[in-house]
Amino acid sequence: MIELINLSWMIGLVAIVILYFVPIKIKSLTAIILIVANVLVTSALAFFVLNGQIVDFIFYGGHLFGDILISMDELSAWFILIINFTCITGILYGAGYLKTQHDSAKKLTFHWILIILLQLSMVWVCMIQHSLLFLIVWEIMSLSSVFLVIFDHHNPKIIKAGINYLVVMHIGMVFLTIGFIWLYFQTGSFSFDAFSTYFETQSNIGLFLVLFIGFGLKAGFVPLHSGLIQGDPAAPSHIAGIMSGVLVKLGIYGIFRVASYLKSDYLLLGEIIITIAVVTGLFGILNAAVHRNLKKMLAYCTVENIGTIGIGIGIGLVGLGSNSPILYYLGFGGALMHVLNHSLLKSLLFFSSGSVFQQTNTSDMEKLGGLIKKMPHTAFVYLLAAIGICGLPPFNGFVSEFLIYSGLIEGVKLNHPNEMILLSVSLAAMSVIGGLSIITFTKSFGTVFLGKARKEFSAEPQEVPLQMLIPQYAIIAVMLSVALVPQFYLQIIGNVIVGLSKSIVVQPPVAFTNYISIMGSISLYSILLIGSIFIFWSIRSFSLKGKSQVTLTTWQNAYLTSSSKMQYTGKSFTKTLSNMFNFIVIERKQYEELQTSEVFPKERKHASHYHDFFEFRFIHVVTNQLIYAANYFKFIQNGRVQSYVLYGIAFIITIFVLTFFNIVT
Amino acid sequence: MISFILIILAATFFTGIIIRTKSIASGRKGPGIFQPLLDVIRLFNKGTVYSETSSFVFQIAPTIYFSSVFVAMLVVPFGQSKGFISFNGDFIFFAYVLGLGKFFSIIGAMDTGSSFGGMGASREALYSMFAEPAFFILMGSLALLTGYTSFQEIFSALHLGSSISYALAVMAAVVFLLIAMIENSRMPLDDTKTHLELTMVHEVMILDNSGFDLGLILSAGYLKFAMYGAIIFNLFSGTIGYKYAIPMFFAMQLLLAFIIGIIESFMARFRMNHNAQFIVVLSSVSLLIFFGALLVSGKFI
Q1: What's the CA gap between A210 and A212, in Å, rounded?
Q2: Can you tell me the distance from the alpha carbon of A403 to that of A327, in angstroms, rounded to the nearest whole number?
Q3: How far apart are CA B155 and CA B238, in angstroms?
Q4: Which residues does chain A have within 8 Å of residue B93's beta carbon, measured at their own beta carbons?
Q5: What is the pLDDT of residue A555?
Q6: Chain A contact set for B49 (CB, 8 A)
Q7: Is the CB of residue A437 less than 8 Å from the CB of residue B102?
Q8: Within 10 Å of residue A588's Cβ, how many Cβ atoms?
Q9: pLDDT class for A101, splitting at 50, 70, 90?
Q10: Does the residue B30 lie in any domain?
């Protein structure tokens, strides 16, 4: 075991050195081989853990660190397997994606080294049980993702998004540091086990919420989602897939990890998380519905799914607080299942929209259209992922949504009026989220892939090469396995949850076993659904045989000059919705009114943007005030060396005077 | 399985009754009650016309839409006897399977690249999105009231309570009836007889469908009506035996079709932007049911 753990970081270090020296032609191949090696090593460990072996390893980290516990439990194993799978598909897809970019060798070397670092640090974040080292690895992870985001560093917008992402990640880092230092000063230990002793004696709420904010900034809970929605759309598609698919899930991992040590106040914390999560879900999907940039839409959709996962975590905590094992299992189980499903679906969506971007060089939906004829595989993949992410049967999204819905409905039957009302409101919110997801993804699929092309491209879009399609079909295979044999995955999740809470061991209740068998029968009904589609389709084909089939133009209301510009656009598809919620999705238009003096109007421009409610109403207000206040102190930084020396002297004199009068010691 | 057969039987005359009621109310004799069925059979025998813009999505969408209604029908129970599909939380499956059908009917409409298709699709998606919470809050409160989470168990346990539970059942019936009208794009929201594409909702989505596909879409609509009628019947059926339940089922379906016909005859359609408000009212009725259920079960002090 220890050999494997050591092998993992050694492969990482060796990989960085090797990558520097190999020629550019085999750079991506080398990187893939090395990442696969590391994935195999860590996945092997994860499988050992899931089979009941214990992977524990303590090494002495010097005077500062003390004993460092590296341990992998079922929770880590679950996340590590998800991370590894998404990384593998991501780099395979990425290697194909980068082929057309013609980037310099240095840039590619840097890119692959960063991916290796990202994968390594993501896996290690799940294993380290020592807060100081955890923070360091967490920081490596954040930094490598920031540099991966700004791959296209010539584009000023991307640099801006990258800096925004960097700042947000470090605000999160500050909260985590505060939380861990707080823990250290109360218990005198850097080990995660200190949480147990801390939560036993002190109030659970404060520390948990501080760490929740820290991890929530990574995960993207509203109003902390700013980094996520700026960072992910700016990154190249394979990175965006990895980031949206698994990097944000490490925030969820952190919340799970801390929640597992909680000793009291479950109900209150559960209620807080559910409230935040419901707001996150609704806000995320509402924004996703109105945005016309494909990648931005997907990033907002990630925010929505984080909300769904959050609802699951909240239900689990309510279950702990109200002594209801079934809620505990359905809530946490649904959340963990959704982590897997969302990582599959969101990486697939980012990959397929990346293929669209690669071929057309735009992710603006209103410029695309009719791609299903030119890129049938990509369209098919996107369609399946869209159905999955809406949570519709017969795909995997339904499995986790069903668990969370069941948790909510079991919760409504509880005997606590507060939770009952909260959970039934969440039930309504979940259904609204479901309905809005359908609007969002029918809109994006319809505008991008269906109808006619809205714009002529200089190079005709073509289907992407097999190298990029194979990883996507691999994801679909796993999606189908989740949809058709959910029992298998739920058994694993059951094992993860048994050992999850460090304070109470909650044995899986009979009701949960029932739910596992229900999931099994649902997969049968999904097959029934697919089967009935086949049957009706063959009846249809049989009946159409020998009958006339004519192909004509679309009905244009007797207006025969059909133009692709006359198609319904994505924006108008959600216009009614955005008007209805214009207090949340803020639309700003830029245009000049037609003046009465203009007899012959010239060409003019009209632009409209949707602003993020929290950024527009809160964050920008605060930062603008900060900049305004900081302006008054501009004179300090005047660029003259003499002044800076003067500041130094003034500082030394102040210290001297203050110590002389014993004001500071 | 019995519910499945009964729903198909009821679907044969449901829409016919609506049309007949409307024509009598407007002073006409009107077509026979099986005319919609004959229309569909005629369509099934016709050839098809496709738009040159459309792809396989357009061709498969009506089939998937029909199959989703078909599978959803299998979930609906009949009094004491379970539907073919029955498990804890089956109503979630019910709603989401119908959602799949909706997904495909929307993208099918968008596949023609028409100026109108997307318009109707966007409206239908929006309205059904607003109707969704009403359904879930309603089912949640029934689950709270009875302590069960599958259609059949909820409906068989619903009658053991006091007269208040019947009051709740009446409110629930109203909610289901309106959901059925929204799902089928009927009168106060959408005029099936309108002739202007700009004001259509459901009709404009299926402008380019013809022949077998159109027949599938129409018959899915008839089945949907009878399916919601069966759910409403279940709210009142209780533990009575088949001897009375089956005639009661058909009487109920006739009554519902008659009510819908009357509503359609004497109500003007809403202005487009008032529709959403109207649908949100449904959710508030569901919330009333929820609080009623809390009161009845004594969990609310």
Answers
A1: 5
A2: 10
A3: 7
A4: 393, 402, 522, 525
A5: 78
A6: 549-552
A7: no
A8: 10
A9: confident
A10: no
Residue B221 near residue B192 (C-beta atoms within 8 A): no
Task: Assess if residue B186 is contained within a domain.
Answer: yes
Give the count of domains, chain B: 1
B50: part of which helix (H) or strand (E)? strand B48-51
Q: Do B87 and A518 touch (CB under 8 A)?
A: yes
CB atoms within 10 A of CB B251: 11
Is the preceding omega at residue A223 within 30 degrees of 0, hence cis? yes
Q: Beta strands of B75-211 (E only): which ranges? A: none
Quick one: how far is CA B91 from the chain centroid? 14
Instruction: For residue A6, name the pLDDT band (cuts at 50, 70, 90).
Output: confident
Report the DSSP beta bridge partners of residue A588.
A609
The domain segmentation of chain A, as residue ranges, is 310-539
A411 touches chain B (CB under 8 A): no
Q: Which residues of A touch B71 (CB under 8 A)?
A: 525, 528-529, 532
Chain B residues lying within 8 Å of A417, measured CB to CB: 294, 299-301
Q: Which of A368, A371, A538, A554 to mutate to test the interface with B (most CBs of B within 10 A)?
A: A554
CB of A446 within 8 Å of a chain B CB? The answer is yes
Is B160 a residue whose pLDDT tops 60?
no
B124 is a domain residue: yes
Band (B161; pLDDT cuts 50, 70, 90): low
**B239/A613: higher pLDDT:** A613
* A513–chain B nearest CA distance, Å: 12
Percent of chain B at pLDDT > 70 equals: 98
Range of the domain at B117: 2-9+40-296
CA dihedral (A187, A193, A199, A205) positive or negative: positive
DSSP per-residue string spanning A316-366: HHHHHHTT-HHHHHHHHHHHHHHHHHHHHHHHHHHHHHHHHHHHHS--BGG
CB A586 within 8 A of CB A616: yes
Q: Which of B46, B103, B112 sits opposite A442 (nearest CB)?
A: B103
Helix (H) or strand (E) holding A650, with range, is helix A641-660
Mean pLDDT, residues A465-480 taken together: 94
β-pairing, A67-72 with A606-611? unpaired
pTM of the model: 0.94
pLDDT tens string A134-174 = 999 999 999 999 999 998 888 899 999 999 999 999 999 99
Give the nearest chain A residue to B147 (CA atoms): A413
| Structure confidence at residue A434 (pLDDT) | 94
User: B48-51 and A549-552 as β-strands: parallel, antiparallel, unpaired?
Assistant: parallel
CB contact under 8 A, B126 and A576: yes
In single-letter form, the type of residue at position A263 comes to K
Which of A282, A382, A384, A405 would best serve as a mutation to test chain B binding (most B beta carbons within 10 A)? A405
B269 in a structural domain: yes
Residue B260 makes CB contacts below 8 A (sequence gap 6+) with: B18, B21, B177, B181, B186, B187, B225
State the Cα–Cα distance between residues A79 and A75, nearest whole angstrom: 6
Using the Cβ of B165 and the Cβ atoms of chain A, whether some distance falls under 8 Å is answered with: no
Count of CB atoms within 10 A of residue A202's CB? 16
B215–chain A nearest CA distance, Å:
11
**Quick one: pLDDT at residue A405?**
94
Closest Cβ–Cβ partner in A372, A438, A564 for B57: A372
CB within 8 Å of B263: residues ≥ 6 apart? B181, B186, B187, B188
Residues 65-124 of B with CB under 8 A from A: 66-68, 70-71, 74, 85, 87-89, 92-93, 95-97, 99-100, 102-103, 106-107, 110-119, 121-123
Residue type, B240: I
